[in-house]
Amino acid sequence: MTYTFSGAEDGWSVGSGVVVLGLSLALTGLCLVVVVWAVVKIVTRQPLLLTRRGDQVLLGVLALVELGLVVQAVLGFVLGAQQQIPNLLTFGVYLVGVLLILPVGTFWALADRSRGGAGVLVVACVTVPAMVLRMHQVYAGG
Amino acid sequence: MAEDADARRTRTGWGRVLVAVYGVFALAATARSVVQIIDRFEVAPVAFVLSAVAAVFYLVATTALALGDRTSRRLAAFSCALELAGVLVVGGLSLAAPAWFPEPTVWSHFGQGYLFIPVLLPVLGLGWLRRTRPGVSG
């Protein structure tokens, strides 16, 4: 049986490309919401506390973003392999590397009872969109 | 006990944010150099070896700043100083002899590709170590 790219498969890649782009934009938006939230905490001198309702919601948002990043990694690998992009290795490292930022960042942030914890979340949630942007540039051949 | 308090100080407050930024650069530099070396080492051996050296120093600085005990503080100061030297020398060379750097490294053009954070980071690291040195209050 010979394997050829049919119109339907191309349609699938184009369609899932749009889904990944939408997903990336949504994840970037959520990260920026967390950044604003964390900056407000820094300015108002409130520490990050798991006992607070607001901070529990904040962590929920972070978990949601991480879940989205996992989905993005799976779709990204499928798309990258299917399109046979030239820098698949770099692309793959970005897809997997970005998964580390939020878990490690959140752990490092929560262990601090000063404003530093919120500062760490700002760093993490600026890094994720930056890596997602680079990932799209690499995918496009940059 | 005093030793413990000093160690805590290095990684509290803004120090914690500094460690986070260092961690991001440790990840970025390590990932970049691993990809460069296994994928196309022969293209630019000088630049890629320097990338790997940068990655090691970022990893050492991140860990040492996070631990913050007396030995770690020395190690952190050492790696921050070498990073500063590295970013200045490689930054200068990348402008003077661009042929050696066909592909950018973390330190090329003084870290321009990374918003010049690579040149700021060791300065901030050394400043923070000075501010939190044992025997100085607040």
Structure keywords:
heterodimer; A: 142 residues; mainly alpha; 4 helices; 0% strand; B: 138 residues
Report on this model:
- The complex is a heterodimer of chains A (142) and B (138).
- By secondary structure, chain A is mainly α.
- Chain A has four helices and no strands.
- Chain B has one domain.
- Helix content of chain B is 73%, strand content 0%.
- Chain B is elongated and about 50 Å long.
- With 138 residues, chain B is mostly helical.
- Chain A binds chain B through residues 89-90, 93-94, 97, 100-101, 104-105, 108-109, 112, 114-117, 119-120, 122-124, 127, and chain B through 12-17, 19-21, 23-24, 27, 31, 34-35, 38-39.
- Chain B: The chain crosses the membrane at residues 17-38, 44-68, 75-101, 113-129.
Fold blueprint:
The complex is a heterodimer of chains A (142) and B (138).
Chain A: H1 7-43, H2 53-83, H3 88-110, H4 116-139
Helix pairs in contact in A: 1-2, 1-4, 2-3, 3-4
Chain B: H1 2-10, H2 14-40, H3 45-67, H4 70-96, H5 117-131
Helix pairs in contact in B: 2-3, 2-5, 3-4, 4-5
Largest binding interface between chains: A-B, 22 and 17 residues
Order of helices and strands of chain B: HHHHH
Strand element count of chain B: 0
Could you tell me the mean pLDDT of chain A? 87
- SSE run of chain A: HHHH
Provide the low-confidence segments of chain B as ranges.
none
β-sheet strand percentage of chain B? under 5%
Uncertain regions of chain A: pLDDT < 50 for 5+ in a row? 1-8
Proportion of residues in extended strands of chain A: under 5%
* Radius of gyration based on Cα positions of chain B: 16 Å
Transmembrane segments (chain B): 17-38, 44-68, 75-101, 113-129
Keywords (chain B): Membrane, Transmembrane, Transmembrane helix
Protein name (chain B): Integral membrane protein
